[in-house]
Amino acid sequence: SWTNIGVNGTSATYDVPAGLEATTSYRRIATSTVNNVECPATSNCITVTVKPTPAPPVLSVVNNCESSTISAKDGAGDLIPAGELTWSNGMMGNPINVTSTASVTAIRTVNGCPSANSNSVTPAPKPTPGAPMGIPAAGCIGQQITLGASGCTGTYKWYETNESATVLGTGSTFLTPVLNENDTYYVSCTV
Fold first, then answer.
1. How far is the CA of 102 from the CAs of 64, 73, 113, 123, 124, in angstroms?
2. Distance CA 46, CA 25 (A)
3. Per-residue pLDDT for the chain (191 aa), expressed as one digit of tens each?
4. DSSP codes, 108-145
């Protein structure tokens, strides 16, 4: 059914009211009088499609060594597609990696409709710690040797090779297994 718009609908143009929340169709009826007979003419139907405004992204930040990772998620906790995001720092992608400490926000645009600004996050990349200094040690064949390290303000981790992912021990000292020959151990520092 059609409803007359009334006074606001009698000019050559019509401004759709603000706050329209549903797709609405409009048509114009023009009436002229010829020989005292009204002759109405109805225009084609014009549909105004209302698109929902997306919710603002929810940002989170993880501070890593020398950079921070910022992710934008929707209300369900899913990553928002990168193409729907406009980051305040001009970066592209999701997540993004930043090295500065400037606050970051994002806007999500879906079907041409932008969201409000997201929450603001302030990255704080951690400095990469310096390599700890291993303290050389010596002992006798068939004995365990206590190795030491210094210069780390975080956690010492001991390894058998410099490429190993297997941590043999933690702490500023490490007791080797029984040694029957010269061996080398490596220590790292994690802050």
1. 15, 20, 27, 7, 9
2. 5
3. 566 666 556 667 777 777 777 788 877 777 788 888 888 887 788 887 888 889 999 999 999 989 999 999 999 999 999 999 999 999 999 999 999 999 999 999 999 999 999 999 999 998 887 788 888 888 888 999 999 999 888 899 999 988 888 999 999 999 999 999 988 899 998 87
4. EEETTEE------B---PBPPPPPPEEEP----TTB--
Short-list 171, 164, 155, CA closest to 185: 164
Q: What is the C-alpha to C-alpha distance for residues 174 and 6, in angstroms, rounded to an integer? A: 88
Q: Where do we find the tokens 């390894």?
A: 159
Pick from 70, 116, 109: nearest CA to 89:
70
What residues contact 24, with CB distance under 8 A and at least 6 apart? Answer: 16, 47, 48, 50
